[in-house]
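Subject — a protein and its fold

Tokens — whole-number codes for backbone shape
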Amino acid sequence: MPPNAVEQAKHFFRTYADTVMPLHEALVRACCAEAEVPEDLALILEDIGHDYVALSNLINEALQARRVREPA
């Protein structure tokens, strides 16, 4: 990764979350206000959440591996 790529990735994900999460919340609230709430919407969002947790776990594993390799 280029030296600035990590900062670019952090900026992207922060901007994405700040922009998209309020939109997602508005969409979900609008769906919940409908006469028929789509039953699979919660499962879709849960699947997305699991995918992000898996990505977070990759980062945490990489950090842990680096800590193990560092001399005391």
